[in-house]
Amino acid sequence: MEHISVLLNESIDMLQIKEDGIYVDCTLGRGGHSSEILKRLTSGHLYAFDCDQNAIDESMPRLKAIGDQFTLIHSPFENLKSELAKRGVNFVDGIFMDLGVSSPQFDDAQRGFSYRWDARLDMRMDQSQELDAYVVVNTYDKEDLIRILKRYGEEPFAQKIADKICKAREIAPIETTFELVDVIKSALPAAVLRKKGHPAKQTFQAIRIEVNHELEQLETVLHDGLTMLNPHGRMAVITFHSLEDRIVKEIFKEVAVAKKVNKRLPQVGTENLEYQLVNRKPVLASSEELEMNNRAHSAKLRGIEKKG
Fold first, then answer.
1. I want to staple 28 with a disulfide (CB 3.0 to 4.6 A). Which of 50, 110, 153, 194 is the partner?
2. Are strands 275-277 and 300-306 parallel, antiparallel or unpaired?
3. What is the phi-psi region of residue 112: left when phi exceeds 0, alpha when psi lies from -120 to 50, beta otherwise?
4. Yes or no: is domain 8-104+214-306 CATH 3.40.50.720?
């Protein structure tokens, strides 16, 4: 399935790209957003991160066809500050993130991200790292499994699923995605199995987030990225589930919204804040985009700007 960039025009508009600016795409993927940023640069430069070497290899020709004022960096985006410092860049005009797993990663059965195809349990965005889904499922103790299923999957049956995983792996390791799906199904009540939506969705999400340290990396890159913005520089972030969106919303709120001491008094202190929100409510996909791209249903775009 072809990867369609979500909220593409809205993201580019939010960044307010200057032709001589320095921009960072923290989530290169297949280069959809990066291409649009690059098209708007003349003397500026784009730095794009991805921990998936396949994404870098596939995006390179697409970007080369537009211009050569870009640098691709094979690294997790939590290394934003250190990797750019190596290249003499300490401040930028815009930072963009499109979080979550790209369609090509989900659609490559061998990557083990999806419950739709049978494959070895993997789920690594960076295939050079050691920790994968097989290790999580087969070596984490029950309490750790419960913790990640509750925290990262918001799974109400976390304890029952963890019980079943531990019992199943005593007999033999859980090797594949379909084996894990069967174990998950065995832990759930019939009424839950009859509901719309795949019963393994929340568990797979939780394991994927644990394997890739997604939420910890997100917090790091948000804090570091905000300190790197030039005056009037902007950060735009697309999230796909409530855990990510909550982190983005709270971190933006911390630096851009004055704390109310008394509801009956006017809000004070906004003049001392270094940042301002671009949008108080997240930008959602249009009905036209939703018709074309199902992945856009859960997408939320938030923006923040450093004051001048």
1. 50
2. antiparallel
3. left
4. no
What is the residue-wise DSSP string for 8-31?
A: HHHHHHHHT--TT-EEEES--TTS
Which CATH number does 111-212 carry? Answer: 1.10.150.170
Q: Hey, what are 78's tokens?
A: 């939590």
- What is the token pair recorded at 103? 């369609």
Q: The tokens of 118 are what?
A: 């049978």
> d(Cα 55, Cα 73) in Å, to the nearest integer?
11
* Comparison of pLDDT for 125 and 23, the residue scoring more: 23
Point out the annotated binding site for S-adenosyl-L-methionine: 31-33, 50, 77, 98, 105
User: What pLDDT digit, counting tens, does each position of 19-71 carry?
Assistant: 999 999 999 999 999 999 999 999 999 999 999 898 999 999 999 999 999 99
Q: Which residue type sits at 177?
A: T
Domains 8-104+214-306 and 111-212 share a fold: no
For the record, the structure tokens of 202 come out as 């929340």
Give 144-151's long-range contacts (Cβ < 8 A, gap of 24+): 148/206, 148/207, 148/209, 148/210, 149/202, 149/203, 149/206, 151/206
Q: Domain locations in the chain?
A: 8-104+214-306, 111-212
Residue found under tokens 């030039």: 230
Residues annotated as binding site?
31-33, 50, 77, 98, 105
Q: What is the pLDDT of residues 238-284, one digit of tens each?
A: 999 999 999 999 999 999 998 876 666 655 555 689 999 999 999 99
For the chain, the first-to-last Cα distance in angstroms comes to 43
In Å, how far are 76, 166, 251 from 128, measured between CA atoms? 12, 27, 30
Question: Burial level of 281, CB count in 10 A (0-12/13-18/19+)?
Answer: exposed
For residue 19, the number of C-alpha atoms closer than 13 Å in the C-beta half-sphere is 5
